[in-house]
Amino acid sequence: MMLLTTLCLQLLLLLQSTYAFTAPSISSRLSTTKSPSSIASSSSDDEFTGFGNVGFLVLAGGTGSRMKANMPKQFLTLSGSPVLHYSLHLFLEKLPEYCAQNGLSPPSTVVLVMDPKYQPDYQPIVDKYNGKLAFANPGVERQGSVENGLTKLVEVSKANNGSPCEFVAVHDSARPLVTIPEIESVVKDAQSVGAAVLGVPCKATIKESDDGVLVQRTIPRARLWEVHTPQVVKVEALLRGFDKVEKENLEVTDDVSIIEALGEPVKLTLGEYTNLKITTPEDMDVATAILKERGDDQI
Fold first, then answer.
1. pLDDT tens per residue, the chain (299 residues)?
2. Which pTM was predicted?
3. What string of DSSP letters covers the chain?
């Protein structure tokens, strides 16, 4: 198993370095397509001042049924700490520390969307951050969880700063390996364009099938991106999008899909292949190896 894990890690790092070089040409091709919903464009030259107008929303209300575990995957132990704790540590400790060292404004507020039955266990952590961290209850689906979290985020950020945050960064707690450079890049792009999502060019060949038995066609890979989180959106636009989705009964699969439904641009921000989502038991082995390689296996 260790040999397999090491090989997986080496492959991930190799692919990451390879696509970090080749992705700009893919982005250029995407930027010339006439998609009404998402574009790959260059960031603004405006000086980046930080995250002061950004609130972070951490989704931790899922059940993680594919993990075949006796608890939701965000609470499983990864290198000695629950998976969820890596996101909380990043947004509440590492990112503010990075901001202080680089003269940037830190995030104003973090909202943790969590099932009420687990909230008492995390109340001491909420208390520790004295208004910077707050709970919200999950919805039936992801969209409901984001709506609940956004409502709380607007409320708390207004109480903390006198006005609500302008942008929301929605992050899946099952992605414990996202890095500060990725977060800074996607926030910069959102502040420039209005909405941005981390992603990587798709490596796999994708087949389309109507019945799951016969191949209908092969989808050109050069135009496909696998999207990650955080996904960063203007709060005002997301609220308009929620209203449109509800009125027109639209089906959306992630946060920037709501912005796409408005016909507004979404920037693709090149991320890292190591920002994987913990979905299966094998993902835990790969994530453990990546943390060890980075020296981040203890928080």
1. 444 444 445 445 444 433 333 333 333 333 333 333 344 444 445 789 999 999 999 999 876 565 666 788 999 999 999 999 999 999 999 999 999 999 999 998 999 999 999 999 999 999 999 899 999 999 988 899 999 999 999 999 999 888 889 999 999 999 999 999 999 999 999 999 999 999 999 999 999 999 999 999 999 998 999 999 999 999 999 999 999 999 999 888 899 999 999 999 999 999 999 999 999 999 999 999 999 999 987 78
2. 0.84
3. -HHHHHHHHHHHHHHHHHHHHHHHHHHHHHHHS--SS-B--PPP-SPP-BSTTEEEEEEE----GGG--SS-GGGSEETTEEHHHHHHHIIIIIHHHHHHHHT-BPPSEEEEEE-TTTHHHHHHHHHHTTTSEEEE---SSHHHHHHHHHHHHHHHHHHHHSS--SEEEEEETT-TT--HHHHHHHHHHHHHHSEEEEEEE--S-EEE-SSSSS--EEEPGGG-EEEEEEEEEEHHHHHHHHHHHHHHT---SSHHHHHHHTT---EEEE--TT-----SHHHHHHHHHHHHHHT-S--
